[in-house]
Amino acid sequence: MNEEKKFGLIGKNISYSFSKKYFGDKFHRLMLKDHSYELFELDEIEKVLEVFKKQNLKGLNVTIPYKEKIIPYLDELSEEAAKIGAVNTVLIRNGRKTGYNTDAAGFEKSFKLFKKNHHKSALILGNGGASKAVQYVFEKMEIPYETVFRNGDLTFENLTPDAVSRNTIIVQCTPVGTFPNVNECVPFPFEGLTAIHLVIDLIYNPNETKFLKNAAAQGARTTNGLFMLEQQAEKAWEIWNT
Question: Cα-flanking dihedrals φ and ψ of residue 41, to 5°?
Fold first, then answer.
């Protein structure tokens, strides 16, 4: 009999999680009866130490708000995770815990599907773990960007329609508008958007956030974070199985 292999997701308010169903379906398709996937709802990051003690735990996904906070609890980081400063995938092998960032690979694949030649500069909304993966991808692709967040030079309060119109890529990286708070939306001067804008909201539940609805009403091209999420999950699966 094969050794049991356990995987899971750590985060907060993760009952709606994409990952459990995604990997559960994958295990079923591949007839991996010895694989399981569990949700680890943690109210504080210190409790990850209890998760690490679980027998036959081979890998974890990490989501909000622990992508940065988990780093001190790991033994090493991949080059990408170290540069980004955020981890969304953990490989556990021979007692060592290695952090990776597959958000960057997932976002890059998703972004390349939609990017056009006139998409030359970006505004990134938020400065958490997901935002840092997007920043990493734009630096790699040599796309100039500005980050909009509460303590930054550019904030949601001083962001102007003119700044929006100058930057034809907008990436919404905050959790605002995620289910069940589907009527919430970050403050944003939507009147600065045009038909040549590409607006990406990394949220996937709901399928179309209030932010995307408002952007689409201005004629902008919009997409959510589902394809990115699928791609980062596949990259995590690859890491766990190499």
Answer: -80, 110
Catalytic site positions: 67
**What's the CA angle centered on 111, arms 18 and 229, to 5 degrees?**
10
In a domain, 164, yes or no: yes
Q: What is the pTM of this model?
A: 0.91
Count of alpha carbons within 13 angstroms of residue 169, beta-carbon side: 22
Give, in order, the Cα–Cα distances in Å from 142 to each of 55, 135, 137, 166, 242.
44, 10, 8, 17, 30
What separation in angstroms does the CA of 209 have from each of 37, 116, 161, 183, 213?
28, 23, 20, 8, 6
Residue 21 CA: distances (Å) to CA of 8, 39, 76, 217: 11, 11, 29, 32
What is d(CA 216, CA 190) in angstroms, rounded to the nearest whole number? 10
Q: The domain containing residue 90 runs over which residues?
A: 5-101
Residue where a domain stops, chosen among 101, 127, 162 = 101
Amino acid at 5: K
**Residue-wise pLDDT tens digits, 69-111:** 999 999 999 999 999 999 999 999 999 999 999 999 999 999 9
131 within a domain of the structure (yes/no): yes
Q: How many domains does the chain have?
A: 2
**CATH for 130:** 3.40.50.720
Pick the closest to residue 230 from 61, 5, 75 (CA basis). Answer: 61
CA 96 to chain centre: 24
- Find the helix packing angle between 103-114 and 226-240, rounded to 10°: 140
pLDDT digit string (tens) for 25-75?
A: 999 999 999 999 999 999 999 999 999 999 999 999 999 899 999 999 999
**Backbone φ/ψ region at 119: left (φ over 0), alpha (ψ -120 to 50), beta:** beta
